[in-house]
Amino acid sequence: MAPSKIKQEEAALPPQEVYYLKETPTPLTPEPFYTNYHQGVPIALDIGASSFKVGLTNANEPNNVFPSVLARYRYRKKPVTVTIVGNDVYRDPLLKTSIKSPFDGPLLTNWDYVESMLDYTFEHLGVTSNNGKLNNPIIMTEPVGCPLSQRTNMYELLFEAYQAPKVTFGIDSLFAFHANSKPNSDGLVIGTGHELTHVIPVVGGKGILLQTKRIDWGGNLSQQFLARLLGMKYPYFPSKITSDHTTNMFKDFCYILENYSDQLKGFLDMPNLEQNDVVIQAPVDLSLHTVKKKSEEELAKQLQRKKEQGRRLQEQQQQKRLEKKIQKQEELDYYSKLRDEIATISKQEQLDRVVDEGFEDLGEFNKYVKNLEKTLKSKDDDEDEGPVDPATAWPLVDIPDDQLNDEQIKEKRKQKLLKGNYDARERNKEIQRQEEEAKLQREKEEIEWRERDLEDWSNSKRLKVAELIGKHTEKVKLLESFKDRKSMAAQQRMKNITDLANDQSVGASGNASNRKRRRAAASIDNDPTDTFGANDDDWGVYREITNSSLEEDLDQISKQIVAIEEDLLNYDPSFHHEDTFSASQTFDWQNLVLHKFVHGPRPNLNLALQTEGIPAEEIANHPEIILKNHQMHLNIERIRVPEVLFQPHTAGLDQAGIIELLSDLLWKRLDGNFNPGGQAYNLIQNILITGGLANLKNFDKRVQTELTGVLPVGAPLKVRTAKNPITDAWKGMQKWSQDEESKHSYVSKAEYEEYGPEYIKEHGLGNVCLR
C-alpha cells in the first residue's frame, strides 16, 4: 500500500493514544515513622510476597506499606555493607540491579532477609524497649496450609530473636473477609495472591479449610506470562522489557471480559480493535539512530578510497599471478631436466623415477609436463598480445600450402586460428555497436513519441505492462502447480525424471542387462554408447525437471514490469505508486489477523515504504519507522492473561478454573441446598473477591455472570469486591484484634518453649492443626 493511501486512511482515523513504559516510581518522600507507639498494643504484620502492610492496631490504617524487596550495597572506600529495604531501593538507580526478595514462590526461604525487613518494620513503627525485648503482641499472616518448617522458623525469629510476648497467625483472605463482613457471617472468599489463588468457604465467621481449593496462579505469574507472550510477539524488540514494565502493563491495561466466548469473536474487528488496542512506546533517542547524509566532498573521498583499494587489489593479484608463474616455470625447468635425464635409461628405471616424484606412471608425468608448457605458453601469448595490424599480423594465411614447408604449414594453421579469433571479436564489436546505435535510436524515437502524444505512449506502455502481468500470472500458476503432485505439470516432470533415470531420454537401446554390462565395461568418461549432450536440445531435460527456468523467467518479467512502470511514474501524471504491480500484490492489512495482532488498527508503514521502492537503509533510518519499531501493541494479551483464572489450561495448568471450583464446592462439597436455610443458599449471598487481582476490571461481574449459569434459577447470588483489596487484610487484623476471640488465640513465649513450634491455637481466621 502506498504512503498516499496510508495517509488518507490515518487521516480518517483518530490518532492513537501512546503510553510510555512505566517503571516503579521513585518515592518522593522517605518511609514515614510512626509517632503513636505504645507498648502492649498488638502489631499487625501482613507479610505478603508482593508487599508488607504493617502497623499498630491503635490506628485505622497501616502505617507502612512497602514492597517485599531489599538490596544490599557495599561501599568501596569503607568495608561496610548497607541493607536497604522497601521503597527506598528505588531511590537509587544503581540498586535496582541487586533487588532481592525473601520469598521463593509463596514461601519465605531467606530468613536473613526476613530479619532485616522486620528490623526495618519495627524501627519505622517506633518500637522502643527498656528491657531489650519486643513488648507488643504480634498478629501475622501466613499462607493457607502453612508448612511446619515455615512456622517453626518464624516462631524462632519472633520468640528468640525479638523476645515477643505472644504471637498468633491468620490467613490474609479470611482477615479481609472479616473486615468486609458482619461478625459470624457466612460466605465465600476468592483470595487472589501474588503466587496463588484460593477459594475458601466461611461458615459462621470461620473458614472451612478442609474444603478450601487452590489455583496455582497469581499476580506474579500473570506478569511473567505477559512477558513471555510479548517476547514471542516481538522477538527482536530493540529495548529491554523488565519485570517492572510488564507488571505495570498488567495492572494498567489488562481486564476481564464479562462474556469471554461471545466477546472474543469480534475482538480483533476494526471497530473493536480501535478501542481495545493499546500502544506502548519504549523510550528512544532519534538522534542516535539518525544517519547524517554525506556531503559531495565526503562521497568523492569515499569513491577515491574505493578506487585506491581496487588498485591495490589489482596489484596484489598481479603479484600473485607473477609468483605463480615463476613457480610453474621452476617446476617446468625441473621436470624438463628430469625428462632429459630419463630419456637414456630403461623403461622400468623411468617408471621408478617418476613414481618417486609422485606420479603413477610415465603417461601422467608426460601429460603434466605438457600442461605446464601449454599453460606458460598461453600466458606468454596473452601478455604479448597488443594492437594487431590485420595486413601484416598473419602473412602465411593467404599463401597456398604447396608453397610452404611443414613448419610453415603448422605456423599457417596457428595464424588462421588467431585470425579467426580476431575476426570473431571484430564481428562482436560491430554487432554491439549496431545494437547500441539501435537502442539509442529507439530511445530517441520513444522520446519523440512521448513528447508528441503522451496519451498514446502511456496507453501503449500500460498495455505492455498488462501483457507482462498476464505472463507473470501464468508462470506463477505453473510454479504453484508443481507443488501439487496430482497436477499435469508435476506428473510430466516425474515422467521426465523417470525417463532420464531409465536412459530413455538419451536414446539408449537394448535391454537392462546389456546396459548394465556396458556400464561395467565403460567409465563415465569413455562410454562409447553414451551420446547424451551431442545435441544441445538434450540439456533441455534438466530445465524441464527443475523450477530454475521458471524462476529465471519470473525474475526477467518482473524486471521488465518494473522498468516500464518507472517510466510511467516519471512521465504519466495519472499513474501512481498504488497503481503499480507490486502494490497490487500486497495484502489487505485490514483483513489480515496477524497484521492487526502485531501492528494494531493502523497500516504498516514499513511495507508501504518498501512498495514505494525506497532503499532499505533509508527506511531503517526513517524517524517514524524508528518510533514504530520501539512500539508494542497490547490487544489480545489484555484479556488473555487474566483469563487464566477462569481457564488455567490456556497457560498450561492442569487445574480447574474459579467457576468450576465454586460449582464443585457448592454442589458437591457442601450441602447443595439453595433453598432458604440451606448452607449453599447462605454462602452465595456473600461472595467476596480480595487480593491484588481483585482490582482487575469486571472480575466481580464475570463471576456473577458465569456462576449464575450453574446455579438454580432465582438463586440469591451476590458477588462483590473488597473495599480495598490490598490493605483490607490488615484492616481485618486490626478489627479482629479488638474481638474477644483474639485474646484467647495467642501463643505465648512460655507455651512455645513448653509445647514446641508444632503448637498453635486455632481460631476462625487461621490455619488448623490436622492430627
From TrEMBL:
<keyword id="KW-0175">Coiled coil</keyword>
<feature type="coiled-coil region">
    <location>
        <begin position="421"/>
        <end position="453"/>
    </location>
</feature>
<feature type="region of interest" description="Disordered">
    <location>
        <begin position="497"/>
        <end position="531"/>
    </location>
</feature>
<comment type="similarity">
    <text>Belongs to the actin family.</text>
</comment>
<dbReference type="GO" id="GO:0031011">
    <property type="term" value="C:Ino80 complex"/>
</dbReference>
<dbReference type="InterPro" id="IPR004000">
    <property type="entry name" value="Actin"/>
</dbReference>
<dbReference type="GO" id="GO:0030234">
    <property type="term" value="F:enzyme regulator activity"/>
</dbReference>
<dbReference type="GO" id="GO:0006338">
    <property type="term" value="P:chromatin remodeling"/>
</dbReference>
<dbReference type="Pfam" id="PF00022">
    <property type="entry name" value="Actin"/>
</dbReference>
<dbReference type="InterPro" id="IPR043129">
    <property type="entry name" value="ATPase_NBD"/>
</dbReference>
<feature type="coiled-coil region">
    <location>
        <begin position="292"/>
        <end position="332"/>
    </location>
</feature>
<feature type="compositionally biased region" description="Polar residues">
    <location>
        <begin position="497"/>
        <end position="507"/>
    </location>
</feature>
<protein>
    <submittedName>
        <fullName>Actin-like ATPase domain-containing protein</fullName>
    </submittedName>
</protein>
<feature type="region of interest" description="Disordered">
    <location>
        <begin position="376"/>
        <end position="404"/>
    </location>
</feature>
